[in-house]
Write a structure and sequence with these properties.
Radius of gyration: 15 Å
Shape: globular
Largest sheet: 4 strands, antiparallel
CATH class: Alpha Beta
Distance between the termini: 34 Å
CATH architecture: 3-Layer(aba) Sandwich
Number of strands: 4
Number of helices: 2
Order of helices and strands: EEHEEH
Helix content: 10-25%
Length: 106
Amino acid sequence: MPDEVPLVTLDKVSKQFGDVHALDGVTTTIDRHTSTALIGGNGAGKTTLLRILAGVYRPSEGSATFADGDLTLHRRRIGVMTESTGLHLRLTAWENIRFHARLFGI
């Protein structure tokens, strides 16, 4: 449907960590029923952008929204697993899930 609202809209999204500009004015849309890839070199901001989409980080500037509102409203339904999982080897899978859910107030 051509008039369908994009699933995700990023409008001038920037993220800073101190003096480091991890993202600088990212603007794009992600349509429903599509696949999207983030490709870039080490330190390009891919993980930072994914963490903004997952509600782990808030943009320093700009906005990231779902079709029906703020991404943070959907935080409980979104997950991101990067190459560095942060799993605790001495915990079971279920214990790791509970631990990380508590960290993020889920």
